[in-house]
């Protein structure tokens, strides 16, 4: 005869098993935060607030309202940045899944009803049951999984930072390229006007018999050669405009409207002292009207502590931490796993027309279970070795990332300093070539020098002015490269939404996301949460050791 079901007995048994369950022992290594290797001795170690603030919105040093507007739009609209935000949302969901594994992993409510016929007898059956199973995390398999998921979330947050830095730098770089090509186009157009005037003068002199036809053909050759360079510069300018359009997720004509705001084309006539004799003003006038972005003065003294904040270094750090946790999770497979299982339900078969008896239908089972992967022939041990090798590789990758960052910063600093020196030399060259052109132009009109002499000064002036514009653009580009190397600009995302409203609305229509889609990146909140999780693990580990 079956013993009657006693709910209090079941509850007492569950409480006893939970009370006697062994504590959690974390297998595998505990990750130790890595510090950058030795840094250049000339770098400071002050972690000053000034250097931090300077890198936060570094592009504002160009003092260009159009550029500031473009950067702001990129932060709001860039599609790659939104994709990085979606990666954070995925990582949040994955962490939530790992957290849930601390609780009973199997909880299933099932039921069925059936009509049957056998041996000329009709019968009906009813089954309704609740099955539960909980693998106790004795060896820390699930705890290590949570650590890995936490590190993965932080790695995705750092990846978001990295995308923001890259997007910001690309917007500024392409804007600088656009303005540089725009200025080179304007300079080329100015030189075309000058050479057209020279060709006209030469034609008049040829018609009067003062010069040979050779001078006329040489003037035309120089004019057409300069005209032929103009389309290539215009194509490069269009490409820079289109690159900005892609970064801002806008159409090219929409970007055109933004680029025209606050910028008037160079007044070529003002730069020319007189159209009649094509006399050129000094370089100071050219610099005053230049549209290439520039910074007044930039310090090249590097705060070494900024380097550790670079997102790619943070990514490497978090990837190593996640991989370290996987060693312990895999090592747990070497040991037996202990579980509590239980089932509660009703199950009864009665003849057709019979009545059900609840007291006879109720059943309950509860008890411990274990599972041990024995005779694995080294498979699990080799899996542990694989994870350990991957962890060591992640540490090597971290060290290499630090070294690469040092090289990038040093390259940018050295290039910025050398390009400024080059600009000074080129400036002197431009001033000399402009003066030489003005002198030779007057002398040629008076018949004192040959056309070949004038042609030489025109070529040198044209080339030197174009080089001057290119060097100015390269210096601005090195400012971009330096702040990108320092990881400047990622701080803006703190507290900002990850996704735009339209994306949030679309995703919420498909799936219940709770507040995951609207949670901003709040580093202080996540840092505090991480510290609390770590403290909780330490407490559990201490309790297990005491036991």
From TrEMBL:
GO molecular-function term, one example from the UniProt record: efflux transmembrane transporter activity
Pfam family, one: OEP
Keywords for the protein's UniProt record, in alphabetical order: Signal
InterPro entries in the record: MdtP/NodT-like, OMP_efflux
Signal peptide (UniProt feature, chain positions): 1-27
Family, as annotated: Belongs to the outer membrane factor (OMF) (TC 1.B.17) family.
Descriptive protein name: Outer membrane protein TolC
Source organism of this protein record: Sinobacterium caligoides
